[in-house]
């Protein structure tokens, strides 16, 4: 008596998980070994931080209303 195994249908979306992981690993290796990419990413993060950092503006405007010396 032999058992015939039915072929299992693979999920077509499963391949995109592997592709995504490989793409992230590739980008990480590029970031590690190309100083231009590191410089550009640091410049972008620095610029974005400057755009959202309103702390100095708020403390300048409300300095007279705080209890701190």
UniProtKB/TrEMBL annotation:
UniProt keywords, alphabetically: Membrane, Plasmid, Transmembrane, Transmembrane helix
Descriptive protein name: Conjugal transfer protein TrbA
Transmembrane segments: 15-34
């Amino acid at each position: 008596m032999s058992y015939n195994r039915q072929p299992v249908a693979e999920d077509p979306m499963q391949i995109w998980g592997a592709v995504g992981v490989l793409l992230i690993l590739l980008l990480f290796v590029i970031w590690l070994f190309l100083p231009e990419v590191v410089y550009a990413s640091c410049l972008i993060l620095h610029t974005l931080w400057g755009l959202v950092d309103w702390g100095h503006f708020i403390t300048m405007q409300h300095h007279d209303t705080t209890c701190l010396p």
